[in-house]
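User: Please fill in residues for this 298-position structure.
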């Protein structure tokens, strides 16, 4: 049966969109494409770090404090170390040393290390620009628990501190690792290899050796190596322009020694004379004056 002409025509006409409908559809499609393009452009901008990259804040010194917490450091000695660092960072002479620089601020992080693979970032990078920031840093240090009590991998401590310097959110003309310890390297990589790799990156390593009143019973030469621990640090640990070793005669004198060390590192001063270390320091050419003169002038 044939379909009436009128009906077929009506059906065909109803199935075909009008020019207005086609125009509206095209306009909506174009609008959606425009929105998608805008969203993709915004996403590309947000996902490109360099687009909104801000220059890192400048400081005079990036200082990684790297502290030995191996098993030869018993709990009373550990507390003396922590308390010494906490008091030293807010010492008035240390604050004055910080303020003597062109930017009048430094950035500090605190690392504890022990045996192979045993390193921890105890306090992340913190700007120290006055007594308030220094006291806050010291208070944190006193509150946080001990990280380890294992063997002594000075090499691991140096490598870990180097990694922290390379990821620091601040920029400084000088980068320094401050290693404090009471024994020789007896775990992990050869300490000289770790030291030399760090020095090649333009990082200075200074040392603070803590002499022991008596040798550890299980390994006397660990804390009292041939020639002394100071010479061991000079030969194997420290390096770079102006590098030096300071000596704390025991854990009780650690606080006084770390104040001297911080002033020397921050203000590029020569440490107080102590045996052959003084000669090495004065040959490196970064001596402006000495700590006693600096403190007296303040």
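Assistant: Residues filled in for all 298 positions:
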């Amino acid at each position: 049966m044939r379909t009436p002409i009128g009906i077929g025509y009506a059906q065909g006409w109803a199935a075909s969109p009008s020019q207005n409908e086609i125009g509206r559809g095209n306009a909506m499609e174009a609008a959606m494409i425009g929105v998608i393009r805008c969203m993709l452009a915004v996403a590309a901008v947000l996902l490109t770090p360099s687009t909104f990259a801000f220059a890192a804040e400048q400081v005079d010194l990036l200082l990684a404090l790297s502290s030995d917490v191996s098993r030869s450091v018993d709990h009373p000695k550990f507390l003396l170390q922590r308390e010494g660092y906490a008091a030293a960072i807010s010492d008035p002479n240390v604050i004055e040393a910080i303020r003597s620089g062109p930017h009048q601020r430094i950035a500090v992080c605190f690392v504890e290390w022990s045996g192979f693979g045993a390193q921890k970032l105890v306090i992340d990078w913190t700007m120290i620009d006055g007594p308030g920031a220094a006291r806050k840093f010291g208070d944190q240090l006193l509150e946080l628990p001990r990280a380890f009590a294992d063997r002594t991998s000075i090499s691991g401590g140096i490598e870990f501190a180097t990694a922290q310097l390379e990821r620091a959110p601040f920029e400084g003309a000088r980068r320094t690792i401050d290693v404090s310890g009471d024994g020789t390297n007896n775990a992990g990589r050869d300490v000289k290899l770790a030291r030399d790799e760090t020095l090649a990156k333009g990082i200075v390593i200074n040392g603070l050796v803590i002499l022991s009143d008596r040798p550890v019973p299980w390994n006397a030469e660990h804390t009292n190596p041939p020639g002394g621990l100071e010479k061991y640090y000079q030969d194997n640990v420290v390096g770079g322009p102006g590098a030096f070793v300071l000596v704390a005669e025991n854990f009780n004198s650690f606080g006084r020694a770390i104040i001297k060390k911080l002033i020397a590192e921050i203000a590029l001063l020569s440490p107080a004379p102590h045996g052959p270390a003084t000669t090495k320091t004065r040959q490196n050419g970064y001596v402006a004056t000495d700590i006693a003169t600096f403190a007296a002038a303040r």
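For context: The longest strand covers residues 119-128.
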